[in-house]
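Quick question, first post here. What does this chain look like in 3D?
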Amino acid sequence: MYKFAFTYLVRQDKKSWNDFSTSLYLLNKNILSKINCRFKILIFCEGKPSKKAMGLINALLKKSIKIVLRKISLQNYVKRKSSEKYKKYFPDVSDCTKTFSIGYRDMCKFFAFDIFKDKELKDSEYFIRLDTDSFFLDVRKKFIYNLQNIKADYAYIYTTIQMEAKSVSLGFGNCLYNFCKQKEIKNYLPKDYLNICQEATSNPKLFYTNFEVINLKWIKNNLHTELLKYIIKEKGIYNFRWGDALIRYYSIKLIGADVLPLRGCLYKHQSIFDSRNFIKRIFSKLYFKIKSSFGRNEFEIKTSKLDRFFLDIKKL
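> Answer (accepted):
Ran it through. Tokens below.
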């Protein structure tokens, strides 16, 4: 039995494979090489890995790390029929030049529900998701200890709970409410379920699910499965771009879970999330805000001495 199944879904393009290579390199350096338990790495993709990525995969295989490379068609995996007509490009609320493709919405459904039925997870206790651009720049012993000894149902990186845009949660609270008011469901829900549904409508939140740790026994329980089936049947993932992060946050609140915020890491995904020391976190954010370095794609492999001083990390 494996304690963890570290799982990636990789788009078939050069940038995604390059990001994946950096992410996997940093994951191995800062986490995999430090944990003392059985784990494996699952890589879902629609094509052949790049030469750089394959070189890293082979290097880890030589260290006797279990790696499973699964080539899939994402559309077929999530069972989206070609006959179903959805808006091809869903507009991004914060940038009129950006859109969410149908493939992006397939990804949301993949991580919300379908992945947990995969045969490769049957021998694992916990599922750990990473995006190709999930970068662990540094971790502390506290983070490794709490991860390795986790007993919670769900874990996320401290400070990464965020607000979700109402434009991509339209109708979600009402969907939850309609699920909750079913007679056979009510007795299994928390007493404040109406407040939870209302929050999902007027003030929606989410976990930053580009890194998350999930107890597979918990997520496969009957009530959670029924909730997810109900949400998927509403087709809000495709028609309104309900994300897996939004779905996860409220399924945890409604179904109930023991949740653990993980502290003691410096993590980057589009910006920096520093869950170590409060003072260091403030000074790091101020420094990189002035320097405008939060969004640099090369940041995780190119750091100056001053960068590393403020981040309190050794040279990558």
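Residues 294-300 have pLDDT under 50 and may be disordered.
The first helix runs from residue 14 to 32.
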